[in-house]
Amino acid sequence: MLEARLEQAMLLKKVVDAIKDLVQDCNFDCNDSGIALQAMDNSHVALVSMMFKADAFSPYRCDRNIALGVNLVSLTKVLRAAQNDDVLTLKAEDAPDSLNLLLESVEADRISEYDLKLMDIDQEHLGIPETEYAATIQMPSAEFKRICTDLMAMSESVTIEANKDGIKFAANGDIGNGSVTLRSHSNVDKPAQNVDIELTEPVTLTFSLKYLVNFCKAQPLSERVRISLSSEVPLLVEYLLSNDKNSGHLRFYLAPKIGDEE
Amino acid sequence: MARATRSKAASGSAAAKSSAATAPAPSNKSRYTLPTTATNPPKIFILPRKATSEARVVSLPNPRYNKPTRYLVCPETGIYEFTRITAPKSTPRSWLIDTSVNAGTGAENEEKPDPKKPESDDSEFGAYVTKGAELYLATSIDPVFLLLPALVSDETARGEGGKKMFVESDDYFDQLSKASPHFSEILRWGSTRQLLESRMATVCDTVDAGGEPMYRFSKEKLLTEMLSKAKRMSENSLPPSMEEKFVAKALEAPVLGLKREDTTTTNSSDSTPKVEPAESQSSTEAAETMTSHASEASTAATSAADEEATVAASALKASMQASPEVTKLQRLRVAFSFICSSYIVPSQVSQLKQQLSEQKKLVDFSPLDDYLAQVAKLRQEAASSRSMGDYSRKHVLDEEELMDRAEKKRKMEEDEKRKKAGESRGVKNLKKVNTSGMKKMSDFFKKKT
């Protein structure tokens, strides 16, 4: 039996909003350490991995492993009812055919309760090893989103080039080309605006911008985003679920484009 | 597939004789086995009684496929080919061989080309069980087939200007010996050489040059020879399996329900010799009915043209009947092509067939051709009418099927809709993204077990 109380219902709403444009149906795997999700897009070139740690909830109780097969569009519809300060409680039986969502508004003394039908989803899980990346960039998530949407106007794909001079996002399209270059810098007043680049070796990779723009839908989750690159492995875009590291993360992986210079 | 029966037009008497010894009863003369080894188990051969003890198995090129093939050559009585008969794969059988019964009498103990083994060896292995129930049947083969490759080949007897020359038989034999070392050996045995030369003369023009006969291959003679073989083969009835498949089937006209009724009233019903499957019928019976029909037909019709006219008339009225004459021609044609396809190289076969169709005076196939053309026409009509019938029948079915289909379609559409509804705009848009050059995630990350 699962019972998890989330102080901020909006947190789950943001997560679901970020994933729903990438994945249609997926399993929320609940166990005693928290609620995890791993899913791929239809083309299997991108992967999303979410971890809601037990610490993010108060209280959190899950005796047995439970897989909640959810259609994300349906879940979005339910979560649309959540208001900013609502507290969300998730409840499910051990072998559930529905997920119970309870939305409590402390201020308004209002309780909304929803039951969401679940489905059986056959999903394969991939083991993702811890990787030492050649380049890791931490930057404001809004900045990353802006770069991606701007370059999207030029081309379908972006080449990310990380070297000691900085990091360059370049797009080459029919109407011309454009690029954005960022250098490491720190803002003492607003540390959230810092751009931190860790580089062990220069790396250049090309990615589909449509996918990156899609990942950026997670931007409301967190002020910061961490982008990690290494040649020949998928790009990692990571958002923390809240500024507290113990809440969990939302990670996106995207396969680089190979041999297709555009 | 094992060929159960193989008619030998060349020497029918020998074939009959050997088939008398066919039964694996303890008939002591017809039992041959090879020495037993793990890799080479004993094989069972049935040899003709008239073959002498001097007969040997030799390897000669197959006249049709030009591959070395084993033949039994007897210095006195001629050359025999082996036909392998096997049980079908679905019903495996095996041989239980008891050699002790006739260990002493086995004067004709025969191995493959190897020399004779002492008889004691024979009794040594006593009873033996073989895995495959293969039976090798030796039946006479006309040596002329074995000579044909040399006779028709371009190498020998090619004079200046590409014209065939008269050549001594030795030249032909030399060429054959090149292909098979055994050939020169068998030439020295008994009357083999005389036999080969006499057979060679039947398909060659000959001249006498200083007491030595010279030979030149003649296509016309070959055709006459083959045709006479085919005639002998088809004289009575072909083996039942061939008769059924190639004669009855080929001549069978399609049954057109209503017209069929007329048939029985206008024609005497017994004039259809093979409406029923011929399998239960013994071949001699069939032959008898055939001959009686032939005589009836000859009294009724004076000329082939008349016969054809009546055939056509009755055929039109009564969805076709093969006249005895037509059946006979079909049989002849089947026999001819069987001989050709068994013993003669394909290139030569096409020439022979062309010659056969050109030389009307040898045998005129036109009644058969006319009949077959008519059958083909009828079949086409029947097929088209049947497909029309199917069409209308389908319509009747459709009443229910249509409902079913509509139901299914509706369900499918609903499913689709639901799926679409469960698909966000972002997911839809991502489907359009060009993912060429992007590897799948499973290429990077291993599946968790």
TrEMBL record, chain A:
This is DNA sliding clamp PCNA. HAMAP family: DNApol_clamp_arch (MF_00317). Belongs to the PCNA family. Gene3D superfamilies: DNA Polymerase III, subunit A, domain 2. PANTHER family: PROLIFERATING CELL NUCLEAR ANTIGEN. It is found in: Nucleus. The keyword Nucleotide-binding does not apply. PROSITE patterns: PCNA_2. This protein is an auxiliary protein of DNA polymerase delta and is involved in the control of eukaryotic DNA replication by increasing the polymerase's processivity during elongation of the leading strand. Residues 1-124 form the Proliferating cell nuclear antigen PCNA N-terminal domain. It comes from Apiospora aurea.
UniProtKB/TrEMBL annotation, chain B:
Residues 109-120, 399-426, 440-449 have a biased composition (Basic and acidic residues). Residues 28-39 have a biased composition (Polar residues). InterPro entries: RNase_H2_suB, RNase_H2_suB_wHTH, Rnh202_N. It comes from Apiospora aurea. It is found in: Nucleus. This is Ribonuclease H2 subunit B. Residues 1-27, 264-306 have a biased composition (Low complexity). The keyword Transcription regulation does not apply. It comes from the Eukaryota. Residues 145-352 form the Ribonuclease H2 subunit B wHTH domain. Residues 46-142 form the Rnh202 triple barrel domain. Keywords: Nucleus. Non catalytic subunit of RNase H2, an endonuclease that specifically degrades the RNA of RNA:DNA hybrids. Participates in DNA replication, possibly by mediating the removal of lagging-strand Okazaki fragment RNA primers during DNA replication. Mediates the excision of single ribonucleotides from DNA:RNA duplexes. The keyword Protein transport does not apply. Residues 1-39, 101-124, 257-306, 399-449 are annotated as: Disordered.
